Give the backbone structure.
Amino acid sequence: MRLDDGVTDTPTWTVVLPVKGLSAAKSRMAAVSPAASELAFAFYQDTLNAALASPLVAEVVVATSDERVAAVAIARGCTVVSDADHPGINPAARAAAAQRGGAGGVAIVVSDLPALTAAAITSVLTTASGYPTCFLADADGTGTTMWLSSGGAAIDPRFGLASRTAHNEAGAVDLVAAHPEMSGNWAAARRDVDTDAALADAIAMGVGTCTSAAIAPAAERLVTVLARSEDRVDIVDEDGLRGEVAWAPVAAAGLRDLHPGQRIVLTADGVRLP
């Protein structure tokens, strides 16, 4: 799983990436094209790429039941552990960590860090090596983007609502509080993306190639309607890529009578008939 065989640093960390099903991902984002699920897929790939490029990462274990997520991980030489019997990020992470191939530290990393770089994660791992357990608070200051055990400690992350407080109360060291001088080095590792405002912040930092491609202004796309509901239209393009369009731009275009099998064109400004 190493991308940089010329690097002489000894890899000592296993990165665990819990990735929930893309169809339910990023529900707070208002993106129409690409669909929020496609953004989540791009975020995951850029997070994975950064982890694999770090000279301190020996292996990556991905916990998921999503076939596309698993396929990318397998193609990159990662271990994939199904999270079907371990719902929730914390049970999934614990199950995945138990399947790692080696010893050393474990870093549980959220999968929505599109601005993450190898340098940023390497910096976090280097500092984390000095603590039995620690965590990296997110850019908003209440959540967590990474929980880390430098080796030997029980894998017991507390991701979820107000996870910064939960991890503190569990005795893990708050890296941001302990090392304020590292704020610049870790900015990209702290910028998780759940909202359009957070995405704009990540873009200003510089996002990875997959996210860049996903958010690039696209040419008009001919797609086929799969289904429609009160708030969205499910679509598939000519390459078989599925997505969704919010109902508002469809209604604004006067296309209230869309039906499965009908073809429409997605544009930068909305939707139109071919």
Notes: Confidence is low (pLDDT under 50) at residues 1-8. The radius of gyration is 20 Å. The domain at 13-211 is CATH 3.90.550.10 (Spore Coat Polysaccharide Biosynthesis Protein SpsA; Chain A).
